[in-house]
Amino acid sequence: MPQPDLALTPAGPALAPRYDDPSPGRSDRRPEPPRSPYRRLFARPGTRAFAAWGLIARLPAGMFGVSAVIMIASVYGSYALAGAVTATGLAVGSVTAPLIARLVDRHGQARIAVPAAAYATLGHLVLALCVHERAPVWALFATVALTATSPNTGGMSRARWAHLLRDDPGALHTANSFEQAADELCFMLGPVLAAVLCSALFPQAGTLAAAALFLGGTLLFAAQRSTEPPVAPRTPAGSPLRAPGMVPLLTVFLATGAVFGSMEVVTLAYVDGPVAGPVLALQAAGSCAAGLLYGRVRRTARLLSCLAAMTVLMALPLLAASAGSLLALAAGLLVAGMATAPTMVTGMGLVQRLTPPAQLNEGMTLAVTALLAGIATGSASGGWAADHAPFPAFGFLLPLTAAATALALCTAAGMTKARRSW
Fold first, then answer.
1. pLDDT digits 0-9 by tens, 80-106
2. How far apart are CA 18 and CA 5, in angstroms?
3. CATH tag for 47-231+241-419 (out of 1.20.1250.20, 1.10.10.10, 3.20.20.70, 1.20.1540.10)
4. Which of 9, 67, 69, 114 is most exposed by smallest CB count within 10 Å?
5. How far apart are CA 295 and CA 291, in angstroms?
6. Alpha helices in 133-168 (DSSP H)
7. Is the pTM above the cut of 0.70?
């Protein structure tokens, strides 16, 4: 073995570095490549468990609406009735959801979410029974109101991230992007699963499967107590609606929800068959991919820019349907969906900044409530358009109009100096 050369120093002999020795002060170890922001996110204890079970609990959100539309339309022969019934459930939910979220803020997620999910599951089962027995139409509207106690699992999951990452805004942006991608994944897989179950088995199969997944997922999500945010002390702040800028932002969410509701019913009616679910899921697939990519960027876009992109891209399904090509419609939905996740992530980020921390569940649920109200309006309008359209592609004008309305509302709200970040 070769010996190192010795050099004389005032303190005596010392090792003289050879030409092949490492330079003083430098290391042979290569710097580790930076880890993915998502890997860093889920390296925190307990995050994988609540994220996984929260995903299971949210999957039925993409199943219940499609299952109800297929179930009611197949038995009663009317898409208008199916759209009106689902719209009624969403409208009632828009009233009850903020109240449930307020209870969650005051008493904790597990204590409120479990009984609320049980009541909602019972409502879905009763609705399926009514459709199976071909009950009077009024019974469908009365029964669907029982499903309006569903807890906002997505909001509770985002509240957990907000608590865990309260000192790390960059990681919180990544977490919000993941949550939106998870929502889109549910709306990508949910319609496919619902359409397959309803078509291959029997009309009520999608609703029954969704009810089982919803209740089981919520129970296991609530069981993850280590990451549950602490109960916030009561404050005299009043409703988050009083926060400056919240009401204009909620009107934007309302119009954005109409985009989703009308697109779902119009696409189901236009395609009308087992392939309708997979075609509709492509919009969510595009949004899911865009959401994951958006979570890796450090600088977020403005809500106004996201809505402008959504308005432009919503013209693609209309053009494809006008051409009469199912393949072109599928591609148009895929591309149009890519503006959805960035819009929702940016909008939810604004909600989190506007809402007092002690009312975070309620503030985010108000945003979801506005979306649900918009989806209800879009579903009812889409069902009417499906039954009374003067030409096949007419219904696809609705999501384009709703997107343009959201853009106009955001533009009006963003004109004030205090809301330049919009």
1. 788 788 878 877 877 787 788 778 877
2. 7
3. 1.20.1250.20
4. 9
5. 6
6. 137-144, 153-164
7. no
